[in-house]
Design a protein that fits this description.
about 210 residues; mainly beta; six-stranded mixed beta barrel; 2 helices
Length: about 210
């Protein structure tokens, strides 16, 4: 993530808060809604014909061929047990999510690197502020969007829910925990038009540093 953990948005007009998440090699930033009710992270695919005009624009959608570290996830063999392909078509791991307000996203699961900046807050790591960590994550590459998801300005969604609860695609937090030994925790501080976000860490203690944002 970038932007020192600062969230953008508006609670009473947009109805969401979002943050920039950098994916791929070379890294590309996507503006993603912070969602505590799901575990999936998803961005629009370059091949999507029904995706909306988001902040990334049509030319800024995720292109698996443009990232040297990106891979499609094959099925029925799953690379990790917590990944559930729904459906599995032509050996491609798919996903489909319907949200309570009626919108829906659908696409295929890919894996690539996500890039995280260390901030001066508490974790078990001792990395100095300003350094980065790259973690291999699983996320959705959307080939269909409907409803509010299609109309929103944000590019996609960043799910924070525990991967053990109704999970189909493991969360980025679970990747941080497993690969970086980060605390299995996140923190949100929200106001009407801004907020702060700490992923893989807890609120700072005066004598500790190194949280991932």
């Amino acid at each position: 993530l970038s932007g020192s953990g600062v969230l953008g948005g508006a609670l009473h007009t947009l109805g969401y808060f979002s943050t920039d998440v950098c994916l791929g090699s070379p890294p590309r930033a996507f503006d993603l809604i912070v969602d505590t009710g799901s575990s999936i992270t998803a961005v629009p695919c370059a091949s999507c014909r029904t995706c909306g005009e988001h902040m990334c624009g049509a030319s800024g959608r995720f292109d698996i061929t443009a990232s040297r570290t990106a891979e499609s996830v094959q099925c029925p063999t799953r690379p990790i047990s917590s990944l559930k392909c729904e459906p599995c078509l032509s050996n491609q791991c798919g996903y489909s999510v319907r949200y309570t307000e009626g919108s829906m996203i659908r696409g295929r699961v890919v894996t690539d690197l996500a890039h995280f900046a260390h901030a001066s807050s508490a974790t078990s790591a001792d990395a100095p502020r300003g350094t980065n960590s790259s973690v291999r994550v699983f996320f959705g590459c959307q080939t269909m969007e409907t409803g509010m998801f299609q109309r929103q300005r944000a590019d996609g969604i960043l799910g924070l829910q525990s991967s053990r609860i109704r999970s189909k695609v493991p969360s980025m937090l679970s990747a941080l925990v497993n690969q970086q030994q980060a605390p299995n925790a996140f923190s949100l501080c929200l106001a009407d038009r801004t907020g702060l976000f700490l992923l893989g860490g807890r609120p700072p203690h005066p004598t500790q540093h190194g949280a991932l944002t």
